[in-house]
Amino acid sequence: MELKDYYAILGVERTDDTKAIKTAYRRLARKYHPDVSSEKDAETKFKEIAEAYEVLKDKERREEYDTLWQHRNDPRFNEYSSSGPAYSDAGSAGQEDFSDFFSSVFGQQSRQARQPRPERGQDIETEVAVFLEEAQRGETRTIQFSLPVRNGFGMIVSEIPKTLKVKIPAGIGDGERIRLKGQGGPGSGGGPAGDLYLVIRIAPHPLFDVTGNDLEVVLPLAPWEAALGTKVSVPTLQDSILLTIPPGTQAGQRLRVKGKGLAGKQNQGDLYAVVKIVMPPRPDEKSEALWQQLADAGSAFDARRGWGKE
């Protein structure tokens, strides 16, 4: 009786885990399935692949097979392989095209395989876009997603649309995940459903940039406001505040407003107003004369002192 090398047929190592074996089987099944394959002898190859996977995916069968492989050079190998605990009943469970070796050693287990073992459903991950304000205050959202339905070869054959109402907790950050137990792919053989993971993606805000729990907002100032100082209204995520601009404020300077950032799990972030000096339109004669007076008064000031020098 021929003892086939099931590991070689699937192209896996003897130390590989069940996940690697399953991945290899799916890849080869897609390539050699008679309904879709153009490979030569695809049907024969597919049967070999299916037989190998039928043994190696099952812990008990795999252990029995590994024991047989260790004794393959023993003089009494045929006697040993036909006297294991799982022989007879060849051709059960739709496996009548498997080799004589499989029927002799694993036929009994094939019959038992008619009753599929419970398997947990696949976990599903989907992204949910929320606005910054929604992430801060918390929000109940209705989401729509699809659960993939796979055939025995792991290929997606259809999708089941699903709608859920979910609570987005206040203070959640970009990239964080929400787990919804039992809302993932359906189980098989009476197994439980998988879980659904919502990955939060915070949409870009038209005013604020986010760095951790801190917010940044660009603050436009006229040259005289930066030079003389003033008070300006600055928007925050919740309301507006009156911010004092000190005299001599520079372009690019960051003015901190404590506690007006994002509410985090550990602490409250801050708001930073980043100064941008905005020049007025092309001046008229009167404005140009005033600018010239300012230039003459500040003639000793060199804005580029040390610029470009090592």
From TrEMBL:
Record SMART domains: DnaJ (SM00271)
Presence of the UniProt keyword Chaperone in the record: yes
J domain segment(s): 5-69
Pfam families attached to this UniProt entry: DnaJ (PF00226), DnaJ_C (PF01556)
NCBIfam families found in the cross-reference section: PRK10266.1 (NF007618)
SUPFAM superfamilies: Chaperone J-domain (SSF46565), HSP40/DnaJ peptide-binding domain (SSF49493)
Family annotation (Gene3D superfamilies): DnaJ domain (1.10.287.110), Single helix bin (1.20.5.460), Urease metallochaperone UreE, N-terminal domain (2.60.260.20)
UniProt keyword annotations, A-Z: Chaperone, DNA-binding
Gene: cbpA
PANTHER family for this protein: DNAJ HOMOLOG 1, MITOCHONDRIAL-RELATED (PTHR43096:SF52)
Domain of life: Bacteria
The protein, known as: Curved DNA-binding protein
GO-annotated molecular function: DNA binding
